[in-house]
């Protein structure tokens, strides 16, 4: 017995409640413990105890007992006399057997861990009563799934990993309706029973390291699943484009697999400045000829079939990008992984270093460092040398350099050989795909049209045995692969499938290239599209404009009038700005991707002050605070000046929008700088700049109270410096923007704006744009929870979930939006949204939440009457449940004077607290 254990034993008293005697070389339970009749927690981990004494029965109040890592050979049955025991850990012992009677007793304990013993079987006696919610039998020698477990209806977590289980009874999961986590990894399972589909609450499932080659169709019933691990099974890996769809996409893939074929396909992207011979090179590779074409405008996509070691029929999709500068801001939407890049440089130009730096950085950021072949073209006109060694040292994804002439064909064969080798070695080549998927793809690719409606697409899939749900998974896969474009997350674009991506993107480029639009500094209207998109069907033009809005290339200034910020005049507009006493902030880029400022202007369009913006800058305002935001492409810096009472709050809004843009560019760690505020720097135009992340870390860890300024060589108080850049409000309501009453008033105002616009736009646009945009103009920090959910009425549009947060990320409230045409007592839409609002999305138990209902009934007054009655009857509604019983409902006509808007307050009980839900109904008919 170790000395520290002796000291603990000497200090024991009859009222001692917590005892920890771990790793003390104990061979038996110390007799000194028997006086502790009030003990509730006992940990004897890491000793050599092989028997539990009879006097253990005295611990009537014991709740937590750990005997982990001892030498017990039998189950200590005396534990079952302890009526209050809730947690029992017997892992890492030498227990060989558990009889049926004692297993029933074990299951009367809430949490049991018997992992890493020598248990070979568990008797199948029926368990009529249990309390157990967590059972760990990991690392034993079970050969069959313990059927007794199926009777434990209370079980929420079950770990059977690292056993030798090779079979599971068909009905094994029928009684486990409350199971949330199931781990069956590293067994010898070859199949799963159909009853697994009954685990409707299951969120985590680990099946890795088994011998499973197929799944039962009931697997798709696991609608709550959030995590699924199938690694190291014969069923095979999931294509990366499928895994990005989440668990539901993975399940759909495996259930669809059936008769399958291997996919040998990749994308070859040809990039570079304009007029360097990209199109000539593409045609030389495919046809061994040169085209009679002009400069590529937009994107040209061709198919090239080659022979590699993996396949004699390897499909290469070549994307030839136009080199004009305006196109560069759109490349982020097409540069993807599973790709090989050809960076073309013209031998006769001396500007190669700028070209290399730009394109190699773009590829590095947007394609996860996909391999790049640098091609020196037009060597028959001039041969220039480049520093290959230095470039490869900086950009590790460069695989080779080639000197060719697309015009004469010189050295093209050597380049082709290298392309075949590199494209064959790309990761994830040879994925298995359901044969029916490729059949559907072939049908779509042979369509003469550039697009089809989503309804036509679903009909084609239905004819091939795919349900609508599986068809949408498939179109998402095609979209991610770059074969077709289907933007399911947009309520308008989801109605069309672009069969030829170049058709849609080239239409966008026609607008970007239009001389008329350029002459108007990026402004265009619907009438101008008649001439710009003359060859494009009139009814499809709204899709093109919506596509531009989605790509953050333009925004709507007013009804049917749009602006492309990238085409604004580069010269700074005239404005007055007092640069003294400003809150300053800078971003310093190693490489500045194109379009950052244009996208920022699009995102903050509703905050722009007095139309003050140009290509490289904008002034925005929230209440009495203004910010000047500018970029300098040459110094690769973005500058922010802010003055006003709420400067730090406006800075948080700006940082959030910029950080979202950086995240979309795979560039999350742009250095942020703040100026020193010492006496020498505070009024200087060139103050010392501190790294903001470092200053925050110092302030958080209190490493130092001051940090030195490199200009004045004096110490600067860290907390005083940080105080300028954050809102230190202990209570959310101390700032009026966080007041729930303020949010309510803002929502009523937002509702009035929607009523003004309801005949100008479709409901989908209102929900997806106006709600969020208008709230942001009121200064709220908005987190758009989901913009691609399916509405309760099954129409698939009109649903939005919004969270309003403080600047530090703490939630203030949640807003749930949905459409409603009718409301009877059997309606499930309202109950579903209420339950989601009260429980699913709210882990913080917020005091007040909001519901916005877009009423679409012929009689708005009848709809509101029926809705209020529905809310009042919630407690007798089986669809609503008992978790948040209604304690009252009141209509608030005093909050506004609009006949087309109604407001009501419902109050719900929750663990002794009252949660309030504000219902705002707007007449959209």
Can you put this structure into words, describing what you see?
- Keywords: ATP-binding, Glycoprotein, GTP-binding, Kinase, Leucine-rich repeat, Nucleotide-binding, Repeat, Serine/threonine-protein kinase, Signal, Transferase.
- GO terms for molecular function: ATP binding; GTP binding; protein serine/threonine kinase activity.
- InterPro entries: COR-A, COR-B, Leu-rich_rpt, Leu-rich_rpt_typical-subtyp, LRFN, LRR_dom_sf, P-loop_NTPase, ROC.
- It is a single chain.
- The protein is α/β, with parallel strands linked by helices and 925 residues long.
- Among the domains are: 265-424, P-loop containing nucleotide triphosphate hydrolases (Rossmann fold); 435-564, Arc Repressor Mutant, subunit A (Orthogonal Bundle), CATH 1.10.10; 568-670, TATA-Binding Protein (2-Layer Sandwich); 676-722, no CATH class; 732-923, no CATH class.
- Helix content is 26%, strand content 22%.
- It is built from 23 helices and 39 strands.
- Strands 1-2-3-4-5-6-7-8-9-10 form a 10-stranded parallel β-sheet, with no helix packed on it. Strands 25-26-27-28-24-29-30 form a 7-stranded antiparallel β-sheet.
- Helix 12 (501-513) crosses helix 15 (541-550), helix 16 (596-603) packs across helix 17 and helix 20 crosses helix 21 (763-777).
Features of the shown structure:
single chain, 925 residues, alpha/beta, Rossmann fold, Arc Repressor Mutant, subunit A, TATA-Binding Protein, ten-stranded parallel sheet, seven-stranded antiparallel sheet, protein serine/threonine kinase activity, LRFN, ATP binding
């Amino acid at each position: 017995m170790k000395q520290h254990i002796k000291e603990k034993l000497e200090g024991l008293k009859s009222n001692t409640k917590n005892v920890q005697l771990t790793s003390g070389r104990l061979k038996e339970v110390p007799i000194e413990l028997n006086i502790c009749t009030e003990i509730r927690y006992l940990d004897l981990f890491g000793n050599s105890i092989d028997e539990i004494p009879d006097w253990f029965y005295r611990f009537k109040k014991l709740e937590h007992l750990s005997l982990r890592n001892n030498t017990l050979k039998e189950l200590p049955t005396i534990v079952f006399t302890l009526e209050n025991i809730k947690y029992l850990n017997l892992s890492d012992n030498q227990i060989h057997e558990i009889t049926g009677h004692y297993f029933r007793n074990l299951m009367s304990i809430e949490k049991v861990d018997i992992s890493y013993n020598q248990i070979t079987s568990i008797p199948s006696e029926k368990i009529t009563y249990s309390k157990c919610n967590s059972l760990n039998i990991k690392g034993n020698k079970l050969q069959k799934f313990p059927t007794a477990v199926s009777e434990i209806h209370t079980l929420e977590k079950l770990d059977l990993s690292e056993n030798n289980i090779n079979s599971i009874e068909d009905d094994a999961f029928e009684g486990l309706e409350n199971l949330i986590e199931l781990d069956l990894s590293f067994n010898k399972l070859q199949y799963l029973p159909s009853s697994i589909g009954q685990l409707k609450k299951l969120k985590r499932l680990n099946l890795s390291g088994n011998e499973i080659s197929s799944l039962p169709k009931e697997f798709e019933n696991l609608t709550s699943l959030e995590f699924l691990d199938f690694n190291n099974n014969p069923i095979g890996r999931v294509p990366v484009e499928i895994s990005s769809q989440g668990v539901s996409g993975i399940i759909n893939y495996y259930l669809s697999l059936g008769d399958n074929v291997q996919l040998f396909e990749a994308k070859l992207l040809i990039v570079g400045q304009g007029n360097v011979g990209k199109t000539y090179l593409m045609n030389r590779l495919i046809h061994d000829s040169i085209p009679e074409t002009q400069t590529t405008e937009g994107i040209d996509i061709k198919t090239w079939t080659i022979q590699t070691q993996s396949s004699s029929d390897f499909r290469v999709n070549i994307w030839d990008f136009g080199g004009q500068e305006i196109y560069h801001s759109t490349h982020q939407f097409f540069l993807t992984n599973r790709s090989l890049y050809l960076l073309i440089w013209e031998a006769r130009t001396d500007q190669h270093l700028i070209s290399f730096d730009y394109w190699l950085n773009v590829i590095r950021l947007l394609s996860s460092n996909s391999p790049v072949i640098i091609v020196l073209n037009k060597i028959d006109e001039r041969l220039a040398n480049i520093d290959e060694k230095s470039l490869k040292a900086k950009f590790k994804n460069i695989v080779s350099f080639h000197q060719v002439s697309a015009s004469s064909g010189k050295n093209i064969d050597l380049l082709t050989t290298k392309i075949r080798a590199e494209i064959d070695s790309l990761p994830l080549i040879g994925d298995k795909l359901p044969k029916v998927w490729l059949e559907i793809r072939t049908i779509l690719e042979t369509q003469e049209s550039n697009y089809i409606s989503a309804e036509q697409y679903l009909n084609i899939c239905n004819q091939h045995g795919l349900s609508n749900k599986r068809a949408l998974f498939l179109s998402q896969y095609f979209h991610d692969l770059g074969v077709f474009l289907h933007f399911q997350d947009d309520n308008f674009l989801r109605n069309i499938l672009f069969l030829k991506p170049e058709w849609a993107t080239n239409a966008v480029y026609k607008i970007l290239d239009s001389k008329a639009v350029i002459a108007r500094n990026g402004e265009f209207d619907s009438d101008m599209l008649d001439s710009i998109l003359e060859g494009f069907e009139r009814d499809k033009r709204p899709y093109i404009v919506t596509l531009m809005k989605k790509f953050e290339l333009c925004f709507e200034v007013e009804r049917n009038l749009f602006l492309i910020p990238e085409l604004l005049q580069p010269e700074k507009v005239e404005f007055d700005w007092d640069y003294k006493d400003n809150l300053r902030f800078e971003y310093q880029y190693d490489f500045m991707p194109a379009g950052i400022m244009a996208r920022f202007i699009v995102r903050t369009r509703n905050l722009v002050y007095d139309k003050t913006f140009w290509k490289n800058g904008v002034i925005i305002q929230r209440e009495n605070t203004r910010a000047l935001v500018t970029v300098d492409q040459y110094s690769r810096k973005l500058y922010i000046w802010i003055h006003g009472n709420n400067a730090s709050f406006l800075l948080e809004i700006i940082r959030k929008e910029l950080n979202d843009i950086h995240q979309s560019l795979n560039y999350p760690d742009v250095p942020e700088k703040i100026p020193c505020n010492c006496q020498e720097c505070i009024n200087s135009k060139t103050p010392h700049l501190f790294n903001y992340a470092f200053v925050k870390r110092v302030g958080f860890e209190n490493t130092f109270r001051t940090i030195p300024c490199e200009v004045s060589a004096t110490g600067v108080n860290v907390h005083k410096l940080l105080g300028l850049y954050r809102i230190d409000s202990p209570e959310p309501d101390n700032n009026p923007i966080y007041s729930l009453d303020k949010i309510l008033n803002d929502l009523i105002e937002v509702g009035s704006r929607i009523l003004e616009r309801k005949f100008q736009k479709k409901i989908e646009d209102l929900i997806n744009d106006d709600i969020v945009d208008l709230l942001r103009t009121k200064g709220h920090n908005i987190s758009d929870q989901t913009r691609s959910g399916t509405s309760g009425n099954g129409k698939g549009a009109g649903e939005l979930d919004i969270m309003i947060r403080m600047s530090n990320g703490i939630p203030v409230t949640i807003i749930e939006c949905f459409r409603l045409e009718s409301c009877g007592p059997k309606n499930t839409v309202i109950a579903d949204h209420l339950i989601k609002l009260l429980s699913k999305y709210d882990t913080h138990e917020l005091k007040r939440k909001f519901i916005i209902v877009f009423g679409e009934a012929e009689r708005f007054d009848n709809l509101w009457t029926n809705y209020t009655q529905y809310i009042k009857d919630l407690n007798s509604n089986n669809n609503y449940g008992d978790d948040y019983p209604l304690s009252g409902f009141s209509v608030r006509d005093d909050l506004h004077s609009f006949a087309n808007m109604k407001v009501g307050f419902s109050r719900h009980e929750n663990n002794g607290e009252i949660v309030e839900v504000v219902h705002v109904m707007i007449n959209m008919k």
